[in-house]
Amino acid sequence: MQVLSEAQHEPGFCTFFQECGLNPLLNDTFIPAIVPCFDYSRARHLTGEHYRRLKEVCPMLDKGENNTYACCSIKQLSSLERSLTLSKAVLIRCPSCAENFAHLHCITTCSPNQSQTINVTQVMNVTSQGKTKLAVVGYQAFLSTTFAEASFQSCKNVRIPATGGFAIGTMCGRYGAKLCNPQRWYDFQGDSSNGLAPLDIDFQLIKEGHTEGLPEGVIPYNGRALMCNETTPSGGQFCSCQDCEESCPKMPPPPQPPSPFMLLGTDGFLVISIILLCLLILAFLLYVSVACFSRKRKDEEKGKRRGKDQNSNDVTQRDIDPSEVTCADRNSLVAQDFLSLQFQRWGTLMATYPLTVIVNILSSLKVLLLSAIVVAVFSAGLKSIELTTDPVELWSAPNSRARQEKDFHDSHFDPFFRTNQLILTAPGRKGHIYNSLLFGPQNFSGLVSKDLNIEFWSDDLNRTASLKDVCFAPLNPSNPSLTDCAVNSLPQYFQNSLDNINAKVNMTELGVTKEVDWRDHLIYCLNSPLSFKDITDLGMSCMADYGAPVFSFLAVGGYENDDFTNAEAFILTFSLNNYARNSTKFKVAMQWETEFLKIVQEYQKNPACNFTFAYMAERSLEDEINRTTAEDIPIFMISYAVIFVYIAVALGEYSSWRRILVDSKFLVGLGGILVVGCSVLASMGFYSWIGIPSSLVILQVVPFLVLAVGADNIFIFVLEYQRDVRKPGETRQEQIGRVLGNVAPSMLLCSLSESVCFFLGALSTMPAVKTFALYAALAVLMDFILQMTAFVALLSLDARRQDNNRCELLCCVKVSTRRPNKPNEGFLLPLMRKYYAPVLLHRYTRIIVMLVFIFMFCASIFLMFNVTVGLDQELAMPQGSYMLDYFKYLYKYFEVGVPVYFVTKGGYDFATVEGMNAVCSSVGCDQFSMTQKIQYATDHPELSYLAIPANSWVDDFIDWLNPGSRCCRLYTFGPNVGQFCPATEVNVFFFCFLLPATRFMAYHTPLTNSQDFTAALLKARELAHNITLGMRKIKGTSPDFEVFPYTVTNVFYEQYLTIVPEGLFNISMCLLPTFVVCCLLLGLDLLSGLLNLLTIIMIVVDTVGVMTLWGIHYNAVALINLVTAVGISVEFVSHMTRSFALSIKPTHVERAMEATANMGSAVFAGVAMTNLPGILVLAFAKAQLIQIFFFRLNLIITLLGLVHGLVFLPVLLSYFGKYGTGSRQMLLNESFCSFFFF
């Protein structure tokens, strides 16, 4: 080989001409490395075929047939055309870029002034066809920076739709698209080691006017390069917006997200809450002032009447005028008397024949035997119970938009593949600097990776199964081998070959010889993942062994500014086919994932493991939820046990230590628990019979809810019985019937309100909420029915035992101490009557209470508008779960989010030019085509949540059809099978006519919480709707044609788009029956119904407000608890409201005191103290969902229900409650309206 130091440079002279043969210095090139012959001679005049070929390949050199000269032969033109074709495959989307690229190489190869532009530096003898000639194997090319920069600018934004990356990234070697500049771009083109350049070309970029160091006679080429928004002389159109920023239309800035609601320069909701607070306080104070003044004047006008009470104390009582006794008052009391009478008869019947209700004794099988049969029949349905564990089935309605879109996508493209992932880091290992021969000093983090080859015996396949049996193999789906499986990892840059990883070779670059190894190859591939051959002497491909590229953002994470080798994490992704759940292959895939998790967990425990990693399998979420549910079952059992112990102890009378075994109510408490259990079993069994599946949420929440409702009724009934004294001549059974008649209407009021509330809640579109409401409604109804039958009979038996002084559990043992014949008020009733009620209802205390609760209500309204909507995935995992580490790594290291597909439905004609142009993004396409609009969205990722534009098969198809592209096109049928198919063949279009579905894949930005996922879904739908409207304007498009975005997470996060109005609807449907039932059962008492409703609303609003303060997000699980809150609030409120409404005390305050003492004590013991111990136990659960949405939220509901029911409501009733009517008997005598009502 000779190195030339001097050469002549004159206009009109060539430096080389004609082809001498293959470059002996190069091997394994993509195209034949044919080098020209060294020949300093005049440029040739071109005519005929020679001129025509030059005009085709290098039209910029055409000066007319009589005046065109060039320095290249026809063979050279053919070789140049073949070489340019490869570049055109990625640059043809932008004709001006392709033109500029061809312009450069036409000048260096064919320019008539070639000797003034290039300087030959290396020649050597080459033998071809028996002739030895001196060939050029290296030269310098001198270009002006103006031409070089303009050419580079025209090409730098040209994209490759299939990858979403830039074409320049594949043509700039190690630097990639981001670090590429004109010099580096030309250096890559002139580097013979890239497998494309036939010889070494040293491009020298010279600034205009600079001549220092230039060989004598050399004039840097300074032709005019086309801008990307210009048409080409040969008629090529200007580049598309996606490939050329200058071609983009002036787009208005995208609308910013709505700014926060502001008033007077501050938070608008805060201002409204403060105004509402002031108005309510002023209205209340005004009402109190006017009421006080009015009462004084009325007392002065009507006078007062003195009388004596039963203790001969003077009392003051206002005379009742008959005109004050309204129709509603009469209706109210008559309704209560009617209900009480019916329940009294029923209770006496149940108490008289207890054995017929409880067991089959003496062949007296009557009421309870029938109820037991009904419960048994219902419960038998449990044999066919189905537990829904699939999150999609739980939270996404079958007719929801996201579910329909998922079904459409899966039916046309198969379900999204199952993802199994490892994220590896080495925080304890220091990185090192690798001084690469080609790439210079590079930071290396020192991470390693491990290939997993898992084999296991499959009973379903009856053979040994491995990854190839279930893997996602896009290029060979029918019969994949292990190397066909889509496994994305760093080893794939080496085709998972240890030989390739260990390969080393000495390489000389710019006179320096060094060893290159896997690090050089890795650096190159991370920046050029689409390369089939690196630029090192290793000559290895960067493509994965399954035939696709591994993009850097999917292989490494935790890097900055595309410094991939300094990444903090390596990512390994194993993709499996997502088979249907009833498929045999689905079980095999699940088994593979189980083995995968076992291997990873065992490797993690290995002491020799010197790096940390997070991991997950597709089944992990469901597995972890099921695992934690099973582990927390003992917590729930302990919770129920604590509640049972409390009920058994609290129901006892304990009049004497000697009678403690007689007066205890262990069996009554156990019976009450069994009644609750039977009602839940009956409800679950009934719905199992009719095919409505259950869920873990139902198993956890419904028993708790029914226990709260049932325990309250039990306490009210039992405490009322214990406080009652049997009348002379009255049997024990008649007494129990009379007591039931007193309290059963109140129990009916609450139970019916709750049951109707939950039945209406089943109108929800969310499957989990709907099934919960159905199960809860029937369970509450069954609980009331069993309490009216079995529990009444049980209490009657227990009363007989207690009357006979027999010990509980040891019925044969009697005690001598007789039962006192006086009511047993316990300690709570006297305490509340003597101390609590008078203090609470003191005139100053009442004002303070009203002001405090008005403030709480207004503050909660403000907080309610600031509650966070959503449920982050991490909360579904138990504490200590490996999935929590995975989510932490995922959010920290991933540079892109989940893929999003823009799916087109049938009804669009892709075969027409207009139809293709409305979709594609290459040259000639509509500036507002589908893919262009997606591209515009990625320019504002902070608003659109789109990071990488959509790849486009339409653009690839257009490139494939382009005659300038030499892509492989073969006939697949007919007489020419296997032969080349020209782009002019019409039949290539036949398959495109009205495709039933197609899709275009883009990537979201990293989404780290449910708010991001929800916002991304909303923005993607807005974009898809805009695209749909545009494409419907194309002639021949069906009116119902649609484009929709599909992401695998949409079915989970769609609910948050509508969960606020959905929640308002559900809660409103629950509040409505509480008002209606309360009014009806109190004889159309609208005022009591409204006050009852107002208090429940305040409990719900305050609950949401405290949720905001305690960091509890609003979601479907929270909504279930809020629906439950309405039911529990009814227990705290409705009993009190009814007790106040039926009181015959003369004043509001006295009636409120009576209701607070008598009913308030029962509510406190039955609802609050029943719930609180069980709720506190849940604080020890491992599952974060249980801790947050069952412990915290139920604690909030119970405490707020308690303070509203026993603090706020009595005060509210004392101010605004129904007026007292004096004598109950007098009202009964006025029966006209009552008769009319019934």
From TrEMBL:
Transmembrane segments: 261-288, 355-378, 633-654, 666-690, 696-719, 739-766, 772-797, 844-865, 1063-1083, 1090-1110, 1116-1134, 1155-1181, 1193-1216
Subcellular location field: Endomembrane system
Gene Ontology molecular-function annotations: cholesterol binding
One GO BP annotation of this record: cholesterol metabolic process
UniProt keywords, alphabetically: Cholesterol metabolism, Disulfide bond, Glycoprotein, Lipid metabolism, Membrane, Signal, Steroid metabolism, Sterol metabolism, Transmembrane, Transmembrane helix, Transport
Domain SSD: 632-797
Bilayer disposition of the protein: Multi-pass membrane protein
Keyword Membrane recorded: yes
Assigned GO CC terms: endomembrane system; plasma membrane
Disordered: annotated segments: 301-321
Cited PANTHER family: NPC INTRACELLULAR CHOLESTEROL TRANSPORTER 1, NPC1-LIKE INTRACELLULAR CHOLESTEROL TRANSPORTER 1
Catalysed reactions, semicolon-separated: cholesterol(in) = cholesterol(out)
Protein name: SSD domain-containing protein
Gene: npc1l1
Protein family membership: Belongs to the patched family.
Main subcellular localisation: membrane
Source species of the chain: Dicentrarchus labrax (European seabass)
Lineage: Eukaryota, Metazoa, Chordata, Craniata, Vertebrata
